[in-house]
Amino acid sequence: MATFLYRLGRWAFLRRRLMTLLWVALLATAGVLAAKAPTAPDDGFAMPGTEAQQAFDLMDERFPGSTAEGASARLVFVAPSGQKITAGTNQQAVERTVAEIAHGEQVTGAVSPFQAGAVSKDGSTAYATVSYDAKPGSLSTAATDALQQAAQHGRDAGLTVEIGGSALMGGGEAGGTSEAIGMAISAVVLVITFGSLAAAGLPLLTALVGVGLGIAAITALGSTLGLSTTTSTLAMMLGLAVGIDYAVFIVSRYRAELLEGHEPREAAGRAVGTAGSAVVFAGLTVVIALAGLSVVGIPILAKMGMAAAGTVVIAVLVALTLVPALLGFLGGRVLPRRARRAAARRFRSRRSPAGPVAAEGAARPGSPAVLAAVPAVPAEPVGEQPANGGTRWARLVLRRPVAVLLAGVVGLGIFALPALDLRLGLPGEESQPTSTTQRRAYDHLSEGFGPGFNGPLTVLVDAKGAADPKAAAERVGKEVAGLPGVVSVSPAVFNKAGDTALINAVPSTGPSAAETQQLVHAIRDRSAGLKSATGATVLVSGATAMNIDVSQKLSDALVPYLAVVVGLAVVLLLVVFRSVLVPLKAALGFLLSVAAALGAVVAVFQWGWLANLIGVEQTGPVMSVMPIFMVGVVFGLAMDYEVFLVTRIREAYVHGEEPGEAVVTGFRHNARVVTAAAFIMISVFAGFIGMAEPMVKMMGLGLAAAVAFDAFVVRMAIIPAALALLGRRAWWLPRPLDRMLPDIDVEGARLQTPAPEPEPARHFVGV
Fold it and tell me: What CATH number corresponds to the domain at position 514?
């Protein structure tokens, strides 16, 4: 593989104009197709295989139109202190507000609370339900403006009016500000790392090209493949992060090859042949982790994973082709001026008549004479000194491997402790900031009607097999009403055929409370007895029950998902490193970092530690998708650093260095780049912590913490300490397995050293 990528890198460097035009044409074509593509459908949150989804499907069949996905709003009216909402002037203000919104754009119905009986027992609070013919996130600006204007008129009349429901649910924050913050921090990190504006700007440019092409492709294929705008969220986050990282890996190796005296085209070929091989396999691990989300059984997660995987593939292709092409335009400008001059001098010494290349006479490129002569070039200080921070850190770890290993493992274990108290759920309006009208509406309804009012349970009675459907429904209603934790049960409502009934049960606790979850299980536990007694099948659905089922399904899928993803990645790393222990060590280190990151999420969002610092106003269960989401995303990203760092260590080992010195060599060349790449990844994810949406905030903190733990504790401390303790055993591979595995030469051991190109010094601009 290294030889093929080496040739690809040289070809892209030589044909840089053609390659650049090709990528520009692809981006423009995708942009045009995306602009002309029909609007993608909204995501339907389906959960196949769960009781809540089964009930939902049956409701759709037996009660046509009852499960329509149109947006709805709930206007909550609260009378001034000491007054009742039913008082003359207050009731008139409510009626006027509801009548005003009833004539609004896209409104299909608005029910007065006094007609629907939606008034609290103490008379202080009432609510009106407004229905729309458009789905959440698709309402026109005029419709939402009319809703907010009507609410303001109610406030002007002296009432407290807040708006709940899905009508004000936007299409989600695009994250433009977050991406801008991440890009700005990334630019600063790259300038500090490379000391060159050209080297810093190139990864940012190519990452934007890759993300732009990926998002445009998702948009263009949205209506065909059922990919909504939500699907592109993960693709944007990951595409930007890995796009920068992969380009940084290539540019860093290109700079190192220039500093060793290679002319620019040869340096580009070697960079793509070595670091490019690491990029390919790092990208494969990310793709495996993302594509593995399909095994969870949640369609929207599968779509997000596949779309993000496609964007990562584009990022890999950009790194292998567009990056060396742009390096062809920059030449030596990716080096600071002083290092550029030194690199040019060193190259001239390599190709001078007295130099080692000429000394081998007519020997062919890549011959032993040439390869033996190359290391004889006298080293001179050129920018990056051999004894850098990475070298010093590696030698410190080698002197105290046991202490470093124990400190890293124990430290991550302490951070992981809160994860033992992990509670999963799908946070709703109760997790919104108190500054939002949705959260205030939720609180007023809880105060006026009880905490469980915001999360009623829908009990579906399928009485097709019952001798007396009405008697069966009444029996179910009485059974549910007698359970502890049930505040009220509505009379059964039958469909036209009279064979299916719906019963609404209001719990005494909120939607995300553990007691509500226990109530759902209690109703389901009685379904078998009710069926034997009445012949009717009882199913529990509704948003609260669906959230409980989602959490359970994700929890059940976590272990199989881990087995699939980690198993495939271990096999892949086995091929890359030709070692049994290195892939296992990599996987165990990853599990430690994910557990520690989950512990940090629990401590902040569930326990409330430092919650005020990042704007978390309401603690509660951790989003149920977080563990499996973090496993998928972070595993792929963690393997990036593993592959890039350890391949350089193995490269030094394969070329004859002792195990300890190989670790030092790997850190000398790549520790700084891995550190910079991690800071870039953390800055991209951390930008989302400042967003108002609690779920996005949680994902930002979880991913940023996971990358920090994995890059700085696992890869930079635990891994070198483990390699130091294992010594040569780290690279042990049984002979039968050695013969079975393909030799893909990730380290570039078979790369030939060609003769110098004529007049290459022109590429060292400014020397």
Answer: 3.30.70.100
Secondary structure of residue 756 in the 3-state scheme: coil
688-728: pLDDT as tens digits: 787 767 777 888 899 899 989 999 999 999 999 999 999 99
Cβ burial of 55 (10 Å; 0-12, 13-18, 19+) is: buried
pLDDT tens per residue, range 508-540: 998 878 889 899 999 999 999 999 988 999 999
Distance CA 372, CA 463 (A): 86
Structure token pair of residue 406: 């124990």
Which helix (H) or strand (E) segment holds residue 200: the answer is helix 197-220
For residue 491, give the 3-state DSSP assignment: coil
User: Structurally, how many domains does the chain consist of?
Assistant: 2
Neighbours of 695 (CB within 10 A): 17
- 3-state DSSP assignment of residue 424: strand
Q: What is the DSSP string of 108-130?
A: EEEE-HHHHT-B-TTSSEEEEEE
Reference 583, options 291, 285, 293; nearest CA is: 285
Looking at the domain assignment, is residue 460 inside a domain? yes
Tell me which amino acid residue 346 is: R
Rounded CA separation 623/551 (Å):
8
- C-alpha angle 653-269-11 in degrees, rounded to nearest 5: 155
User: Which stretches of the chain score pLDDT less than 50?
Assistant: 171-175, 354-385, 753-761, 765-767
Whether 286 and 642 have beta carbons less than 8 Å apart is answered as no
What is the per-residue pLDDT for 751? 65
111: domain CATH number is 3.30.70
The answer to whether residue 559 sits within a structural domain is no
pTM of the entire structure?
A: 0.77
Q: Would you state the pLDDT for residue 573?
A: 82
Domain extent, residue 469, equals 431-548
